[in-house]
Structures are given as C-alpha cells and as structure tokens.
Amino acid sequence: MAMKITVLDGRTLQTGLAFPWPVDGPDEWTCHESSAPEEVRERAAGAEVLVINKVVMDAALMDALPDLRCIAVTAAGTNVVDGRAAGERGIVVCNTPAYGTDAVAQHVFALLLELCRRTSLHDESVRRGDWGRCGDFCYSLTPQVELTGKTFGVFGFGNLGRRVAEIAHAFGMNVLACAHRPVPAPGYEPFSFVSKEELFRRADVLSLHCPLTEETRGLVCRETLSLMKPGSILINTARGPVVRGKDVAEALRGGRLGGFAADVLEQEPPSMDDPLLSAPHTLITPHLAWMTDGARRNIVSITLENIRRYKEGDPQNVVNREWLR
C-alpha cells in the first residue's frame, strides 16, 4: 500500500549528490530542502512517514499530525525528537547508527594533528616566502607536538569512540575510556576503563563521543576543566551543548587548555560574538565531520531500509522502543 512520505530538511544530504530519494515506486514522496518551524505543521500534514534531520518534533506537533506513524531521523543522534511522546502516540522513531564512524573518526585526527603540527599555518608561511628568507633548511613557527606516548582519553565508548581509540592506539598513544554502560574492552594495550573524573585528570588529549542527554549537557564546564592537565587538548565532535563554550574560552585564555577543536557548537550556526571564535589555540569546523560522500550515501541507504522495514511491520534502528504502545 502506498504511503505518504515527506522529507522536511534534506538539503545537506542532497548537496553534491544526485537526488537521493526515490522518484519512482508506489509511495508518494514530497521533499523540501529546509523547513522553518512555522512551515513544518502544514508540510507534514497527512504524512505517515517524516524524514527529518534538525527539525524539532515535540509532543504538540505530533498531536497536530494524526496520520504520523514513523519519524526517520537522518542522523545517529535523535535529541530533536521527543522519543517518549512519540512512543506514547504509537510513532516509531528510527535513526541511522554508525553511518559515518570512519568519517568522523578521521576528522577527529585531522583536527588533532592540525593543533599539534599547525600544517596550514606553515604552508601559508612558506607561500609568503618566509622559508626563502629564513636562511636555513628548516624552521618552525609553533612547538611541534608528537602524539606517541601521550594519553588519549575517550568519553563515550560506542562505535565511534571505539574507532577513535583504535586510531589513537595506532599513533602509539595510551588509551583511557569512560563508558556509559558496560562494554567489552578492546584487544590492545595499554588501555583502561576509568571514571569520568580520572579521565579528565589523566588525558593529554580528551575526545568527546557521547550523545546529548540531560546528564551530558554542560559536561565540560569550569568544574571539569579544572581537573584537566595544564596544556591538554579537548576535541568535541559529539554535540555542541556537551561543552560550555564560555568556560572553554576562559580555560584557553588562562592557559588551562593548550588547545580546543570542535566540529559542533552550542549554537549552530554561531553568532559572531561566540567566545570560542576569538579564543586562542582553537580550531572550529562547520559541523562537517560526518559529511563525506560515503557517509551521506550510508545515511540515505539506512534511512530507506528503515522505511522499508517499517512498512513491512518489522522496524529497525528504533530508538524509542521502550515507550512504544
């Protein structure tokens, strides 16, 4: 039986890719590149399945959409959806887990290596003619930091945290992890599971890989930053509100942090008075760690399979199963 399926904000998936959603077949697809909050109710009306990325779905909106039975989120994180409210209304919420594990893990190390070696800064210097003028065969504008032997901390040890830890180990780093629930230890050493407090105290590099929940919102704040080693590096490719930007900027200016790199911020896009934009030793990229062509194709493939499985009565990747009625 044909379904009405509406994509409310598909622009980021469509950028640089062929149109990813089916144009043939029995189902009725309506696709919007983006939807302002005041447009969502009208555009979503009558849809059995909504495909969303950043559109917020709360209880009031769900009550206004009596035909809605499935929300397919084109992301791993589903904090934009009130999962409990959806479940109580019989609405299945599916996500796309592990679609970009390698893409995001590689971005973590692109950020880390740039902080440690400042390759783009030196490339710019060479192009200005500084090498030709220096009179020597080599020079450096910044300290050159080697990762081997340093301690790499991972907060959150799901698929992504585990992959990032593997890469850190390959660089010769000592790996520590704080997991939210019991998980198997990896097969390499040195590795240890530690508490949150010990992770913050011991890590030379701390990389965040946790979902945004009430427990993790504001996790990195003045209190936890005070535990960190002077000169340590913090990386956030998780969710922006996990980090209090004002406190991180203060720690950078005061020398508590040696560097901060983020692909996500508390407000996206940021205002120009965001304190992190003017903080020293900071790298910020525009939420693109996930955005390789391969990862986006994975999102589309998983989302289409989620919809197919829902249609067959056997939904997969359901994140609100505990509340479904």
Radius of gyration, in angstroms, nearest whole number: 22 Å
Structural class: alpha/beta
Cross-sheet strand order for the largest sheet: 8-7-6-9-10-11-12
User: What's the tally of helices?
Assistant: 12
Report the average pLDDT across residues.
95
* Main sheet makeup: 7 strands, parallel
Q: Level of helix content? A: 25-40%
- Which band does the percent of strand residues land in? 15-25%
Total strands: the figure is: 12
Rough outline = globular
| Low-confidence sequence ranges | none
Distance between the termini: 23 Å
Order of helices and strands: EHEHEHEHEHHHEHEEHEHEHEEH
Structural overview:
The protein has 325 residues and is α/β, with parallel strands linked by helices. The protein has twelve helices and twelve strands. The strands form two sheets. A seven-stranded parallel β-sheet has the order 8-7-6-9-10-11-12, sandwiched between helices. A five-stranded parallel β-sheet has the order 2-1-3-4-5. Helix 10 (222-225) links the parallel strand 9 and strand 10. Helix 5 (101-117) packs across helix 8. The radius of gyration is 22 Å and the shape is globular.
